[in-house]
Amino acid sequence: MSEGFEELCRVRPIARQGMITLRGDLSAKAVKNAVTGVAGVDMPSRREARHVGERAILWMSPDELAVLVPHEEAAVAAETMRSALAGIHALVADVSDARAHFRLEGDTIREVIAKLAPVDMSPAAMQPGMVRRTRFAQVAAGFWLRDEATAQVFCFRSVADYMSGLLRTAATPGSAVGYF
Amino acid sequence: MSTRLATGGRLIDRSKPVRFQFNDTWLSGFEGDTLASALLANDKVMVGRSFKYHRPRGIVASGAEEPNALVNLGKGARHEPNQRATTTELFDGLYATSQNHWPSLEFDIGAINAKLARFLPAGFYYKMFIHPRPFWKHIYEPFIRQSAGLGRAPDPETRDPDTYEHFYAYVDVLVVGGGVAGLQAAKAAAKSGARVLLIEQTAHWGGRAAVDGGMVDGQPARDWIAATVKTLEGMENVTLRTRCMGAGVYDHGYVLGYERLNDHQPQADGPRHRLWRIRTKQIITATGAIERPISFAGNDLPGVMLASAVRDYVVNYGVAPGERTVVVTNNDDGYRTAIALKAAGLAVPAVIDPRVHAIDPPLVAQAKAAGIEVLMGRAVAKAKGGRRVTGIVVTAHSGEGAALREIACDCVAMSGGWSPVVHLWSHCGGKLTWDAHHAFFRPDPAKAPTGADGAPFVHVAGSANGYLFLKDVLQDAENAGRVSVGLERDPAPDANSEHAAPIHPVWMMPAKAGDDLRAKAWLDYQNDVKVSDVQLAAREGFESVEHTKRYTTLGMATDQGKLSNINGLAILSDALGEDIPQVGTTTFRPPYTPISMGAIAGQARDEIFQPIRKTPVHAWHEENGAVWEPVGQWRRPYCFPRKGESKHQAVRREVRATRNGVGLLDASTLGKIVVKGSDAGRFLDMLYTNLMSTLPVGKCRYGLMCTENGFLTDDGVVARLDEDTFLCHTTTGGADRIHAHMEEWLQTEWWDWKVYTANLTEQYAQIAVVGPKARVLLERLGGMDVSKEALPFMQWADGTLGSIPARVFRISFSGELSYEVAVPAGRGREFWDLCLHVGADLGITPYGTEALHVMRAEKGFIMIGDETDGTVIPQDLGLNWAISKKKADYIGKRAQERSHMTSADRWQLVGLETLDGSVLPDGAYAVADGRNANGQRNTQGRVTSTYYSPTLDKGIAMGLVHNGPARMGEVVVFLKEDGETKVKARIVNPVFYDPKGEKQDV
Questions:
Q1: Which residues pair with B164 in a beta bridge?
Q2: Where does B883-932 show beta strands of DSSP type E?
Q3: Which residues contact B83 (CB under 8 A, 6 or more apart)?
Q4: Which of B166, B270, B279 is the closest to A174 by Cβ?
């Protein structure tokens, strides 16, 4: 079989990913300490995603971060962050059950994402360790590049089936664009 | 006849024959052919009939501008109408049929219309069929629809078997058009390191230069093209795509590219078309120019073609469109065709040139040297023939058409000059200027489309910019490429410079053609518009080109007048006695040529046509026969009919089971927004009409939200989670909207308030356990105290139920004892199943949205979207109790104090009970005495919610009635859907069930 008959990349759902939303002053030391403390990952700058293993911190907006931890740790991690931030203006919410996550693996993840999201996926613009909040076709979504061949996509839980269908369609054999 | 030449054809591979069908006859062509070239090779010159008169029509052009050769392509599910044969690449097994003929292409009954042509002038339909009015719908329109039209629409039952997709690309410079100008511009821009995307609509690079030749940088144009493509392919920062058309230019550097991946190989894997959604900083349109036909009588006969197309077929495909070709041209370029035909060994009896040359320009001299007779100062009076041109009548161009001589021929190659393709330049507001010397509109560099910074973002290169000679084209392209990336201008590669005599504009041939000739001189082939039609429109007062276009349908066909617009407006300006620039052009709009619906839809079909939001319990609903109700993008169960049960019966059963036992509702779609911060209370006091800051921790309060204009926009229960934190429930449809509303106020007006929000709607499955036995059920699950003492009405508590972490709210939208239980979404299904299991012997009954609606209506609870429609204020709904009098302000307060909002004449909420117990029609109006200025019945109220109440066994309704609350007991008359049948209803209290609220507080 020629390579044209292979899927452009592997798409698999990540079951039970823990995720905590934090809103606060990202320049405040207490906020930095609270998130890096539970994640064991460095603080990201604008549009960055820092990760070590299955833990990560994603920059979501000038006053919002998403902290990824294993699902079973999420409730405790959120509580730890809340107590660390007691008396400080911040909001911590466990959104582990509100999201669906997918992992894309392969050499053509850039093309698969560029078919669905209005994002400049060129290697110059979108590098490993970057995150984007965007849309995939008709739903809100975010994604980040773990490395050159691995992307992680997340969306609302209610549209997990739709997102799965989108990603698999975009990765259909024979649909390589050959652009990047 | 037209035929394949023994040699030649740079694009075809004679070793690879390709079989295809046209009108169910098997024919043969070669790989590399277009359908048009293959048809000509098989002597199929006539390929269709015209739209209005059903005149025989043949291939005119060789590219995207083709007006005539439209075919039905493919069969069954792959059938597609109006496909241009000139841009359809041939493949094995291609199946095409001609359009707009009945019963056959050769014999067509509609051709009788041609005999009636003088009774079918411009605007005929408007004039003739306007009276009597009813005839239009029942007689004229069906008749016209039968006889008019082009391709056949696909069978509605078929489904497109192909796939399509979108692709987002971001570049610095997009070059549209892969001729020498596009190649040179791309090269010039790419030198800066800019990211360049070059797209070409055909399968080949080089455009006209590959056919017309010339020398660039000391090498033949074709070699230079090949070398330049290779150079560009080797550059990291350049991407080249063939078969990709620049379809439209939009604001902010947005461009649509239409890539036809598999049209030429329908069995291949992958998408058929891909829509490129490009964001580019700069655009260079190197879209070339299109040759114009000449308006002489009989110029629509099969065999009359554009001169450039004739030599394209010879040079590119080794096809001779005719054995004897007369060339008629008003410019030097047309001579190239005569020379190319002669070189291919074909007969060229004459070149007819309305100009008179004192000294022959080079191309004219070259033609004469090749032994071709040149008739100067002459014109074609008319072309003769039926299904094929058989000859022409020569006349003096300055005269009225008196015959001087006849020349037999089977092909006429005409060139009326060239029009730069300015479409993409114009899409975003680029203006044109009339170049009288060249007789064409060219882009006005002083009036380019501008971006957000006020600087031009579209540049034009080459013949699209009005440069017709190789040397000028390359220099212009080099300039455009450099300007697009901010580089200094630099010399372009050298090319041979040419001398040419000026064009002599010919808008009608001969110059003083009489009525009979003008009525046979076609401007728009596809829509059957003639010179005489445009002149008639001018006489009837259509002075604006846009009006003339719509009156005559000039340029309104699928080719959008690519060949006809300039000729048509020249005729119009002449008839109006104005200059061409004064008349101006019609508006150029995307797409450049039609693009497929599939490409526009992209991947959105079948399962992923649109997102369907699913709750954590969705699968259970599906497995248990839920009838779905779309609520935004959610699917919610309307009801759960059992075997043999109607929806109506199911709803009745669900209501009764809930009122008498226990019901279960999946309320997960309700919005849940957390609002936290030291200013959260103050913020909610502004958002809601009532006081939220005074809500004690642990308690719930119902609240209303209004827009700045005072109108009710959302409602829901707020729970105070701790001193700084509130949880706001919204309606299902309000979740995203209200969250955005909150963020807007926080980010734009109250940016210094200490408040954060988070939309946690999907974090929780929320399940309502409702009915007198609800407490028994939760007690069986165990884990927390849900007694009246521990958890009274309008309070909440955290705990576990059946070992699942839960937050339990004692709130009720049904009037019954009710708990809304929020559990983590991942455990929602488990909790649902547990309730069904534990409650089986209690008769636990899942219910849907309709039972929910019935029960809330029995209680007189309003529903956003039923009792509200964007014009209703809370005061209209008797909700004054939920509007704080103490607060200095809230969103909507000031608006609600305006005179019309406080007027005693507003329609207000009441209950309605029909005297006969029937159910009022939804939306029915209550009539009042008299009629309004429009002769309509005056009204005094309308129904907002109406149901059959299983609890009360009669119809109940709510409605807004003029002065309603003051008219309790009064009977008003509503009209049914027919507008005549009267239903009498008594105005009553809207709370039909348990008005004291004893049942929910137990």
A1: B273
A2: 907-914, 925-931
A3: B70, B71, B72, B73, B96, B151
A4: B270
Q: How many CB atoms lie within 10 A of CB B189?
A: 31
Q: Domain range holding B22?
A: 3-113
Sorted by where each begins, the domain ranges of chain A are 6-13+99-170, 16-97
Q: A119: which chain B residues are within 8 Å (Cβ-Cβ)?
A: 168
Instruction: Check A138 against B610: CB less than 8 A apart.
Output: yes
Distance (Å) from the alpha carbon of A157 to chain B's nearest alpha carbon: 7
* CATH number, position B35: 3.10.20.440
Q: How many domains does chain B have?
A: 7
For B70-80, the pLDDT digits (tens) are 999 999 889 99
Q: Three-class SS of residue B261?
A: coil
Record: contact B167-A4, CB cut-off 8 A: no
Mean pLDDT confidence for B21-46: 97
Put simply, whether B963 touches A (Cβ < 8 Å) is no
Asked if the Cβ–Cβ distance from B608 to A169 is below 8 Å, we say yes
Chain A CA closest to residue B678:
A89
Query: At which of B802, B821, B856 does a domain end?
Result: B856
CA distance to partner chain B, nearest, from residue A140 (Å): 11
Q: How many CB pairs under 8 A join A and B?
A: 130
DSSP B584-648: ------S-SS---HHHHHTT-SGGGSS--B--TTHHHHHHTTPEEEEETTEEEEEE-PPTT--HH
Q: Which of residues 126-165 of A touch B (CB under 8 A)?
A: 137-139, 156-162, 165
Say what the pLDDT of residue B143 is. Answer: 63
Residues of B whose CB is below 8 A from A164: none
Answer yes or no: is B121 within a domain. no
Question: Which has the minimum average pLDDT: B105-114, B369-378, B609-618?
Answer: B105-114
Per the domain annotation, does B296 fall within a domain?
no
CATH entry, A6-13+99-170, from 3.40.50.620, 3.30.1360.120, 2.115.10.20, 3.40.1280.10: 3.30.1360.120
Q: How confident is the model at residue A1 (pLDDT cuts 50, 70, 90)?
A: very low
Residue in chain B closest to A71 (alpha carbons) equals: B826
Judged by CB atoms closer than 8 Å, whether chains meet at A172 and B163 is answered as yes
Q: Is the pLDDT of residue B812 over 90?
A: yes
Angle at B475 between CA B469 and CA B476, to 5 degrees: 85
The minimum CA-CA distance between A138 and chain B, rounded to whole Å, is 7
Q: Inter-chain contact B166–A116, Cβ cutoff 8 Å?
A: yes
Residue A4: pLDDT band (50, 70, 90) is: very low
Give the CATH number for residue B374. 3.50.50.60
Residue B775 to residue B780: CA distance in whole angstroms: 9
Inspect the interface and report whether the beta carbons of A93 and B758 lie closer than 8 Å: yes
Q: Is B7 exposed, middle or buried (0-12, 13-18, 19+ CB in 10 A)?
A: exposed
Q: Are residues B197 and B262 in the same domain?
A: yes
One domain for residues B184 and B269 = yes
Alpha-carbon gap: B847 to the closest alpha carbon of chain A (Å): 21
- Tell me how close the Cα of B164 comes to any Cα of chain A, in angstroms: 9
Question: Lowest-confidence range among B52-66, B224-238, B715-729?
Answer: B52-66
Average pLDDT for B446-460:
95
Q: Which residues of B touch A156 (CB under 8 A)?
A: 613, 762
Stronger pLDDT, B363 or B140, i.e. the higher one:
B363
Q: Which of B795, B821, B856 is a domain's end point? A: B856
pLDDT in tens, B394-435: 999 999 999 999 999 999 999 999 999 999 999 999 999 999
Same domain, B74 and B101: yes
Is residue B316 domain-resident? no
User: Do B695 and B810 share a domain, yes or no?
Assistant: no
Within A85-159, residue ranges assigned H as helices are 109-114
Is ipTM > 0.90 here? yes
Q: How far is B857 from chain A (nearest CA, A)?
A: 29
What is the pLDDT at residue B119? 62
Q: What percent of chain A has a predicted confidence (pLDDT) above 70? A: 97
Amino acid letter at B386?
G
Structure confidence at residue A3 (pLDDT): 43
Contacts of B278 in chain A (CB under 8 A): none
Identify the weakest region by mean pLDDT among B114-128, B501-515, B727-741.
B114-128
| Superfamily covering domain A16-97 | Heterotetrameric sarcosine oxidase (3.30.70.1520)
β-sheet bridge partners, residue B249 = B255
Q: Are residues B862 and B972 in the same domain?
A: yes
* Half-sphere exposure for B126 (CA within 13 Å, toward CB): 8
